[in-house]
Every structure is written in structure tokens, then in C-alpha cells.
Amino acid sequence: MTSSYSPESAHLEAILLVGGQGTRLRPLTLSTPKPLLPTAGVPFLAHQLARARSSGVRRIVFATSYRASMFAEAFGDGSAFGLSLEYMTEETPLGTGGAIRNAAQALTCGPDAPVLVLNGDILSGHDISEQVGMHVTRRAAITLHLTEVDDPSRFGCVPTDEEGRVTAFLEKTPNPVTNRINAGCYVFQRSVIDRIPEGQVISVERETFPGMITAGELVLGYADRSYWLDVGTPAAFVQGSCDLVLGRLPSPALPGPCGEFLTMPGAEVSPSAKIEGGSVVGPRAVVESDASVHGSVLDADCVIESGAVVVDSVVGAQARVASGAVLRNAVIGDGAVVGSGNELLAGARVWPGVRLPPNAVRFSSDV
Ligand code: GDD
Ligand code: MG
């Protein structure tokens, strides 16, 4: 679809929802909120901020709650991104709708302006300008970005008619009527946000969207098939980081040139170690001789000892994986130690600081 709308000349403002606790990513999110986890070498949000900037957004209000102060510490006034950033904090989480309403107090636009709203855990290659253009051209109240997934029951299921009008919004329904889902990037008319009740816990997915549709307001779906990922689970988080390193989703925020893997400053990788699949070796991390690291995120100052195998896993800051240990699809918390001979598979998680003695855990395919 073509449109003459230009978000840049319209000084488009955005609200970024980053108040969730990231429960499914524990223990990684015990100390760091999900949107700040190191992803392809930089805090996850850096990729979203850079993409929003290149789509013409100039000002973003962060809707924070969990560990709120860490966001301002990470991004400050936004000038490093060519953005102006504001921070609005809910004392107790107000849900997605309440958070949007609360953050809107810091917007400067008028009631007829479109406002972009972004979930803070999404990697998306869709054309934001085109989505906003569709919204403006068709004078919608809300325009939702939609994508298709294999299992829509874990998302907001969003059927539309032939003209792209949303006919229902079914959040995490066990019986999805379409594979098309809410991709977590919305355009709201500012006046629609101002109608959300203030200071109350409200879900846009369970209350605002269904209510608007029932009331006959024009809620549109902007559907496309570009790269899209919600990084809410460990497997998806690792996948997102690897996809960025491998260039499957171009990001202006990548810290340097990447190939099969990305090494951060001060990292030490033995020439006989094998690193591939979009892995990141974090700042000052060490990968010793004959270790094998595939599709994984190694955080700052961690050590992968000689001969250890790390596949599709996250190794937290200052953690240590001893010689001969094997990780597949595992999450190792900050400062934890996985002793030699352990084999951690299929979603295993080790909490920060825990020391797993040698040969404590082993899976066998014979059982
Ligand atoms: N400020 C604030 N306050 N932010 C919140 C709150 C809150 O009370 N609750 C959630 N958020 C933020 C989260 O930090 C995240 O960025 C976003 O809102 C969505 O929350 P998630 O917890 O990640 O929701 P989800 O992934 O289960 O489902 C949502 O995203 C899907 C797409 O990934 C829904 O919007 C679904 O409809 C959608 O399909
Ligand atoms: Mg999510």
C-alpha cells in the first residue's frame, strides 16, 4: 500500500510498553528487565529504538513499572539514538491499557494525531511508516500490526474482513479462529488513548480492543509477513539474538560487523574453539580450547572451559561452564557454576550463583 503520510514530518510520538516482569525468562529477568537483556551485544530495546528512529519516530515515552530506574540508566535522554526519551512509571503495574493511558500524559501531540504503541519484547521487520500511513489514510481509531504464527493460542487472535477491518479480538483463546495474531505494534488516535480510564488496571487486549470493536469503531489490521518474533521465552530470546547476528533481521543497533558469530570487546576465544549459529561472546567472556558454542548467548565475563558444549542456550554474566559439561536449550543464571560432566537439556534453568557439582545432572536417552 502506498501513502503520502510521513511519520517524520508529522513528528510521530510513540509509547513503549516495558513494565512487564518477564516471568517466563527467569532467572535472566530476576536482575534485569526483559527489554534490557543483552541481545546481539546490546540491550534488546536498542534494536527497537533504532528501528523506530529509522521509521521517523522522534520522541518515545517509556511506560515502566518493574525495575523502572534501569531504563533511564540504560538510555538516558535518548540523544545517542537521535531520539528524545521520557519515562513514566506506574507505582503498581496498570496493565497494558492503564500503562498507555498513564504514559500519554507525557505526549505532546494533539487529539487528532496518531500515536505509535509498541510492546517492548518484539523484533519486527514490518514497515512502520506504511502501518501509520494506512491508519491515517483510512481514518481508523486503532490500527493493529498483524502477523501469522503456527500456534495462535499463545497470542491475541485477530480475525479481519476483506477490507482489513478487525471483527474480533480474542486474547489467548484455546480455540483460535485464524492464525493471524496481534503482533504488538499499534497506532492509536491520541483521542482514543485519552478515553481509557485513568489510574485503573486495564488490558488493551481484553478490554479496550474488544470494547472498541463491539462499539463499531474502526479498528484496522495491517497484516504482513515480514520477520517477527516475541522474545518472551528463553528459546525465542536466544533465537532473536542469533537472527540479528546472522542478519535475518537487519538492525542499525548492532555493535559491529557480524558473521557466524559476534565477539564483544575483551572477549577471548581460543583458535580451536568452534563458535557458530549467530552466537554472541560477551564482553571479556572466555571460550577455551575445543569448546563448542552454537546458537547461544554468552554474557559478560562468563567462562566456557575447554571441551564444553553449549547449544541454543544462555550463559549469564560471570557464570562458568566447566570442561566436559553439555548445555542444550538451557539457561544459566549470572554467576552460576556448572561443574564438569553435567548435561543440562530441554529448558533446564540454573538460578544465579548456584554451584552444580561435577556429574550432578545427566540425561540419558536409554531411560
Ligand atoms: N508499563 C507496563 N505496565 N507494561 C506492561 C504491563 C504493565 O502493567 N503489563 C505488560 N506490559 C508490557 C510488557 O513489558 C510487554 O512489553 C508488553 O506489555 C506485552 O506484555 P507481555 O507479557 O509480553 O504479553 P504477551 O506476549 O503475553 O502478549 C502480548 O503480546 C503478543 C505479541 O507478542 C499481547 O499483546 C498479545 O495480544 C500479543 O499477541
Ligand atoms: Mg510478549
TrEMBL record:
Belongs to the transferase hexapeptide repeat family. It comes from Sphaerisporangium dianthi. Gene3D superfamilies: Hexapeptide repeat proteins (2.160.10.10), Spore Coat Polysaccharide Biosynthesis Protein SpsA, Chain A (3.90.550.10). PANTHER family: SUGAR-1-PHOSPHATE GUANYL TRANSFERASE. Residues 14-243 form the Nucleotidyl transferase domain. It comes from the Bacteria. InterPro entries: GMPPB_C, Mannose-1P_guanyltransferase, NTP_transferase_dom, Nucleotide-diphossugar_trans. Residues 259-350 form the Mannose-1-phosphate guanyltransferase C-terminal domain. Transmembrane segments: none annotated. This is Sugar phosphate nucleotidyltransferase.
